[in-house]
Design brief:
It is a single chain. With 375 residues, this protein is an alpha+beta fold. It has 2 domains: 173 residues, no CATH class; 144 residues, no CATH class. The strands form 5 sheets. Strands 1, 2, 3, 6, 7 and 8 form a 6-stranded mixed beta sheet that branches. Strand 10 and strand 11 form a beta hairpin.
Length: 375
């Protein structure tokens, strides 16, 4: 038999687990292998990992890494915690170098050693309430077999007093691509954020659209002795007043603009005012049109319509000329210096003399974006 080394930390992404209620008994047969599959998780708890020691450190008594993992799985299942073993194969790498005589040489090194990991729990989210309680329990858990000196375990020095499993943490099932988990979480959030809108972009049946306006809330990054350090919630409340502009307000403005553009009509087959809204965690955007190809000629029409224009710089008009109230001729406008102004839409007041009720300034560069798809 070989001695083993207990590794409290291992290179895996963060995970979550759950303690099963005693009323929900789970199968637990000593010595029977319980292996991780893609059906487990997707969030689990990385309990710990075991590795066989080097040949020169072998002892006649003691457990192998595989036996130790099986014992830990058994003891966790005794507590009603669904635990599993996962074998992490060794990974070898190579590096090109030169020997002492200057000749090319290639060295092989162990980038990752063989180890057996023990994972526990099956949860949909990293912040699962039961998973958090289970993780707390596991960190304080002292397996019986590790208390037996005949097991041959070598526990890391900084974990000896606090417990051999103090390094447990939440992670993703190693057999599942983390990108799939991220996409699933993002899709859920996007569905919620866009569920109450009148013209959600995710309902656009085409492949592409043109982003023309962006609305984002104000933000602060506390540095040094910043007033907002530790009081980010207070900062957010300050933005919520009549003069504030937070993410909720940004979303409302995007919805208003899209509704206004649609109220103007479609402007023929170009779909200039076929507006949509899309909300995410950081901003809200307004897009126009739906296209099945990024080379659709109508995209250019939409882009040119909502692009910035070069307008005469009226600051160049003399004060005396302004006092006359006379309108500038086209020739005078052509000769004046120009300034670049973003496209603007106005919601007119009740009368011609009234100021606009609402003014929207568009992005400085409309861009083609893919229509987001939510699964």
């Amino acid at each position: 038999m070989r001695t083993l080394k207990l590794i409290v930390t291992v290179l895996f992404a963060a995970l979550s687990l759950s303690v099963a209620s005693p009323s929900h008994a789970i199968e637990n047969v000593r010595g029977k292998p319980y292996h991780v599959t893609q059906k487990h998780g997707p969030w689990m708890i990385m309990v710990t990992s075991f590795r066989n020691v080097r040949d020169e450190d072998m002892r006649k008594d003691g457990l192998t890494a595989e036996q130790a993992a099986a014992e830990l799985v058994f003891e966790l299942r005794e507590k009603g915690i669904p635990a599993y073993a996962f074998s992490q194969d060794a990974v070898k790498g190579q590096i090109d170098t030169r020997d002492r005589l200057g000749r090319d040489d290639r060295r092989i090194y162990a980038a990752q050693r063989d180890m057996i990991c023990v994972l526990a729990g099956n949860y949909e989210a990293i912040d699962d309430a039961v998973g958090k309680k289970t993780l707390s329990f596991i960190k304080k858990f002292h397996p019986r077999f590790l208390k037996d000196t005949k097991s041959g375990a070598i526990v890391r020095a900084d974990s000896a007093e606090r417990g051999p499993l103090v390094g447990a943490f939440m992670t993703i099932n190693p057999l599942i691509d983390p990108k799939d988990i991220v996409q699933k979480t993002a899709d859920k959030e996007i569905k919620i954020l866009n569920s109450g809108g009148r013209n959600p972009l995710i309902k656009n049946q085409h492949k592409y659209t043109v982003q023309v306006a962006t609305f984002a809330g104000k933000s602060a990054t506390p540095l040094g002795n910043s007033t907002y350090r530790g009081r980010e919630g207070w900062f957010e409340s300050k933005l919520g007043g009549e003069t504030g502009f937070n993410l909720d307000r940004a979303g409302e403005e995007a919805e208003r603009l899209a509704a206004y553009l649609r109220s103007k009509g479609s402007n023929g087959s170009t779909g200039l005012n076929e507006a949509y809204v899309h909300h995410d965690k950081f901003q809200s955007i307004v897009t126009v049109g739906g296209f099945d190809s990024p080379d659709d000629p109508r995209i250019r029409v939409v882009g040119e319509y909502y692009s910035p224009k070069w307008e005469p710089d009226l600051r160049a008009v003399s004060q005396a000329r302004r006092a006359t109230g006379a309108e500038l001729t086209q020739e005078e406008k052509d000769q004046m210096p120009k300034v670049r102004t973003n496209h603007t839409e106005y919601l007119p007041g009740p009368t011609k003399e009234s100021p606009p009720v609402q003014v929207w300034t568009f992005d400085s560069a409309p861009k083609v974006i893919p229509v987001p798809r939510v699964k």
